[in-house]
Structures are given as C-alpha cells and as structure tokens.
Amino acid sequence: MNDCNTFFLPLNDLLTVLNGKWKMRLILCLSSEPKRFNEMKKCHGISPRILSKELKELEMNGIVIKTEVKDSLNTVIYSLTEIGLELIPIIMQLQKWGDTHRHKVLAQIQQKK
Q1: Which fold has domain 2-86?
Q2: Is 85 exposed, middle or buried (0-12, 13-18, 19+ CB in 10 A)?
Q3: What residues contact residue 74 under an 8 Å CB cut-off, 6+ apart?
C-alpha cells in the first residue's frame, strides 16, 4: 500500500494544481506571453472574482508570478514561472488524449444508431 501512495501522491498534487474549469486555460493563455488581469478576463469571459481566486491559487503553487509595474496605472502583469512552463506539454498531451477519446466515443455512438 505504501508504494501505491508514493506513486499517486505526485499525481494528486498535479490534479490539485490543475483542478477546476479555468486553471489549464489560464496557463495556456499565459504560455505565449505575460498578460494583464483584464486581458485574461476578456479572453476567457471569466468573472473578476473567479479570475482573481484562480490566479492566487496558481501563484501559491508556484505556477504564476505576479509583477507590479510602477506606471501611472499601477499595472499588474501575470506570467508563468519555469514550473508553469513545464506544464504546457503536459496540458497539450491531455488535450490530445481528450480529442482522440472524444472521437472514439462519438464514433461508437454513431455505430449504435
């Protein structure tokens, strides 16, 4: 049982970090370049309250870094850390699996009709 826990503990950590509707979207949104809060809000149609909560959780887990720019607008920019960048290929692989799985399931449904 101990080996099982040792194996699944890191997977549980990963699932906790990526949990929810928005986290993977926000990580991919930041993968091309750093963005301001309002840019991400408009891009995904996410409410400010939820966006703030998700960004705080990503920041707490070392995925995102928040940088305050000393300008006339007191701009805040979010970017991915090195750890956050490491998640990009993982998320892309999950998307690829999901796409393949979706096509298989839809094909099975069509065969039954």
Answers
A1: Arc Repressor Mutant, subunit A (1.10.10)
A2: middle
A3: 68
Neighbours of 50 (CB within 10 A): 14
pTM of the model: 0.86
Q: pLDDT tier at 103 (50, 70, 90 boundaries)?
A: very high
CA distance 113 to 106: 11
Structure tokens at 68: 């305050």
Question: Any idea where the domains of the chain sit in the sequence?
Answer: 2-86
Beta carbons within 10 angstroms of residue 91's beta carbon: 16
pLDDT digits (tens, 9 = 90+) for 44-69: 789 999 999 999 999 999 999 999 98
